[in-house]
Design goal:
The chain is built from six helices and no strands. It is mainly alpha-helical and 122 residues long.
């Protein structure tokens, strides 16, 4: 059997869908369970905080599945800290081309992990 591979864009779409579903379910649960919330803004704020925690947890989970520490660091700087390849290259004393190669290697490794997508759908 061939492993199911998805592009970065497909994984991102699935991750956003999963986050939206989780946020929607959480918002409904909080409305039902939290009578202390006097207005919707309190509920929405709680949902936003919960969604951020879930996203952070997924990011850490995904990063832990990258075998190379250098690739993990590059992905973290590019996607979590939102730095450009050029900025990362300067910080790590690498060429921009080397950063791009490490990034592509790490993303390919993440694409090959079937359980990451399953985790995002929980």
């Amino acid at each position: 059997m061939n492993p199911v591979l998805c592009t970065y864009e497909e994984c991102l779409v699935e991750l956003k869908r999963s986050a939206w579903r989780l946020q929607s379910k959480t918002r409904a649960h909080i409305k039902r369970e939290c009578e202390w919330a006097e207005d919707y803004n309190e509920v929405d704020s709680a949902c936003s905080q919960l969604q951020q925690l879930c996203e952070d947890e997924f990011i850490q989970y995904a990063l832990s599945h990258i075998s190379s520490s250098k690739a993990r660091l590059i992905i973290q700087k590019l996607y979590v800290q939102d730095l450009s390849e050029k900025q990362v290259a300067e910080q790590l004393n690498l060429t921009q081309q080397a950063v791009n190669r490490w990034k592509n290697k790490a993303l390919q490794e993440l694409r090959s992990k079937k359980n990451l997508l399953k985790y995002a759908q929980l």
